[in-house]
Structures are given as C-alpha cells and as structure tokens.
Amino acid sequence: MDLRKLLRSFCYAWRGIIWVIKTQQNMRIHLIAAVTALAMAAWFRLGGWELAWVVTAVFLVLAGESFNSAIEAAIDRIGPERHPLSGAAKDAAAGAVLLLALHALIAGIIIFGPRLAGLLRSAFTAALPDAHCLSLV
Ligand SMILES: Nc1ncnc2c1ncn2[C@@H]1O[C@H](COP(=O)(O)OP(=O)(O)OP(=O)(O)O)[C@@H](O)[C@H]1O
Predict the structure, then answer these.
(1) Which residues hold substrate (predicted)?
(2) CA nearest ligand 1 atom 21, residue
(3) Which residues are the active-site residues?
(4) What are the pLDDT digits (tens) for 106-123?
(5) How far is the CA of 101 from the centre of ligand 1 (A)?
(6) Can you give the pLDDT at residue 123?
C-alpha cells in the first residue's frame, strides 16, 4: 500500500472541503445548522439510533452540498454559454441537496420536536406555576 499516495488523497479531499466552505454560502449555512444539530444532540444526550440518525442527516447534507458544488464547478468549467442541459444538471444537483435538507429537517422534527416541546412546557410551568390549568382548556 502506498501510504504517501493515500495521504495525498486525504489532502486533496480536505482541500476540496475547504474550497466548498470558502466559496459556497449554502455550505456555510449547512455547517451552522450541522453544529447546532450536533450541539442539541449533545445537550439532549442522544444515544443509539437517534444519535446515528442526526449524525447521518448532518453528513448527508454536507456531502450533498459538496457534490452540488462539484457539479456547478464542472459545468461552469465547460464554458460560460447557457445550455438547457447545463441548467438541468445544476437544477437537479440543487434538488438533491434540497431533498437531503428536507430529510434532515424531518429527522430533526421527529427527534428534537418532543424534547423541545417538553423543555418549553417545563420552562412555561416554572415561569407560571398555575400554567398547568391551561392544559385543561
Ligand atoms: N450554463 C448554464 N446554462 C443554463 N442554465 C444555467 C447555467 N448556469 C446556471 N444556470 C441556471 O441558473 C441557476 C443558478 O445557477 P448558478 O450557477 O448561479 O448556481 P447557484 O445555485 O446560484 O450557485 P452559486 O451562486 O454558488 O454559483 C441554475 O440552477 C440553472 O437553472
């Protein structure tokens, strides 16, 4: 096994990730969302399948955005002229990221939704001791 070649491949991959972060605003937004989701996972002490779902959703979105940027760059490299197929390829790549982001949103709602609701409920009842009456309404 050529260890230097393997190391070089990691360097290229890392350089690619840095390039996407530097050039793509959407990637930076995804990164903020990813850090938030992982911080919430730590805060709620998620484990097992729930943690696996959150981590998977986060990395799928980041990888999807990276692929999207690669497709955009390759199409822009072909030339500045507009072509329906170039447009369709960019739209399809953007659509893939949207689908992955929707998946992450749905997973987030399923996993964090009940916990956030519980947190809000206890904060509400702590602030207003008689607030439990509202749940009877
Ligand atoms: N060469 C092209 N030929 C035809 N349509 C294109 C072409 N380039 C872009 N488009 C259309 O314009 C849309 C936006 O393209 P653009 O390259 O600006 O991507 P973007 O999502 O705004 O990303 P970024 O701002 O990072 O470049 C594409 O989704 C596509 O519909």
Answers:
(1) 65
(2) 94
(3) 65
(4) 999 999 999 999 988 888
(5) 19
(6) 86
DSSP class of 137: -
- C-alpha to C-alpha distance for 21 and 7, rounded to whole angstroms: 21
DSSP code at position 44: T
106 CA from centroid of ligand 1 (Å) = 27
| pLDDT (tens digit per residue) in 56-113 | 999 999 999 999 999 999 999 999 999 999 999 999 999 999 999 999 999 999 999 9
Any idea what DSSP says for residue 134?
G
Lining residues, ligand 1, CB within 6 Å: 24, 72, 75, 82-83, 86-87, 90-91, 94
The residue whose CA has the least distance to atom 7 of ligand 1 is: 87
Integer-rounded Cα radius of gyration of the chain:
21
- Quick check: 136 pLDDT over 60? no
What are the structural domains of the chain?
Answer: 3-110 (1.10.287.3610)
Question: Quick one: 24 exposed, middle or buried, by C-beta within 10 A (0-12, 13-18, 19+)?
Answer: middle
Coil, helix or strand at residue 79 = coil
